[in-house]
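INTERNAL TRANSFER SHEET
From: sequence group
To: structure group
Subject: Probable imidazolonepropionase

Please process the attached sequence and return the structure record in the designated field. Keep the field labels unchanged so the import script can parse them.
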Amino acid sequence: MAGRQRQRLLLENAEQLVLVCGRREPFLRREGAASLGVLRGASLVVGLDGCIKAVGQADVIRNQFSEATFERIIDCSGKCVLPGLVDAHTHPVWAGDRVHEFAMKLAGASYMEIHQAGGGIHFTVEHTRKATEDELFTAFQHRLERMLRAGSTLVECKSGYGLNLETELKMLRVIERAKKSMDIGISSTYCGAHAVPKGKTATEATDDIINNHLPKLKELKLSGEIHVNNIDVFCEKGVFDLESTRRILQAGKDIGLQINFHGDELHPMKSAELGAELGARAISHLEEVSDEGIVAMARAKCAAVLLPTTAYMLRLKQPQARRMLEEGVIVALGSDFNPNAYCFSMPMVMHLACVNMKMSMNEALAAATINAAYALGKSDTHGSLEVGKQGDLLIINSSRWEHLIYQFGGHEGLINYVIVKGKVVYENERCETMSSY
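Return from structure group:
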C-alpha cells in the first residue's frame, strides 16, 4: 500500500502547485502554452527513487499517505511549487572573461567586428586551450551552482571553445565530470563547429570535424568515457555556411546525436528550413528566421530555443516569439550563458521574454519548463509536475507563482528551495515571505 511505503519528500498544502501540464504532453504550443495547469491547496509526494508519486489536493494526499513514512516534510502554506526550470542553451565551460568586450559593444562595435578583430570566440578559445581540466571544472562547477540557486535543475551545456580535438574533448570531459558529481541535470552538446579555427577554411574545419572529431566521440561513447547528447553548429555568414552545416549535422545524427544548433542569428541563412529537413530537435537564436522557416519548424515539431538575453545584450532584433507561437512552433527559452552574454538566471530570461518578445507569463514558464525539456529530448522525465516524472521542483515564497517572472532580478530573495530528485539541494534560509508585500 502506498501509504506505508517509505517516501523521500512531502510538499504539503501549497497555495499554488503549478503542474504546467498534466496529460503527459511532450510540449505545449498555442493555447496549451497560454493556459497552464495550476492546483490550489495542493500537495506533492516524491518517492525514494526521486520520481513524483502523487500530486493532488492536500486533504486527499494526507489521507493517502502516513506522515511517518516521509524522510522530509516541507510546509508550503502560502507558497508556490513549480517544476525546476530548464535552461535549453548555455556555453558554461571556458576560461577568460570578456568584460572588456562589453565596453566595446557599448561603444558601438558589432559582434562580427569584435570577432574579426580576434576577439569574441577566438579570445575565449585561446584562454580555454591554456587552462587545465581542473581549472575549467572549478569554474564550471561555480557557474552551475549559481544556475541551480536561480532555479535551473536541468541545463544544456556546450563545448565549442576548443575548436581542436584535444580541447573539445577536454571540455566534454569536464561536462561529463559534472554530470557524475553534481546534483544539477546536464544535457551535453558537442559544438566543435562554433567558429572556424585560425589557419583553417570552413571546408577544412568541416572535414576535420567529420573525419576526426566525430569518430573519436563515437569511440568514447562506446567505451563509456563520454556521453554526448546533442550536436551543434554555428550556421552563420562568415562562419559555417548552409552546406557545411548540413554535412556536420548529418554526420552527428548518423552517430546518434540529436541535432540542436545555432541558426539565423545575424543573417537569414535558411537554417530553420535546413533543421526542419534534417529532423532537428531544436534550433537556437532565429532572430533572422524567414516566414517559410517558421512554418517548416512548426510542421517538423522542431523547437525554437529563443535567447532574449543575447538579443538584449547585442542589441539585435528580437526573435519573433509571437509569430512563432501563432504558427504553432514549440517555443523554448535559454539563457545563452557565455562570456558574451553573462546571465545565469532563467527567471530573468523569462522576464525579458515577456517584456521584449511579448510573451505572456504562462507562455514564458511553459517555454522554460516543458518546452525547454522537449528541446533537449527530456520532456518525458522533466518540465512538469506529473506522476512518474523526476522530482525536480522549486518552492518560492509567494502566494502567486508569477512573482518568479514579475520580480526582475529578484529570484535571490524569492526562491526558498531548489529540489532535485526529491532532495533539497539549495535552501535559502534568508528568504523573506512575500505574501505581505
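Handover comment: The mean pLDDT is 95. The first helix runs from residue 31 to 34.
Transfer complete.
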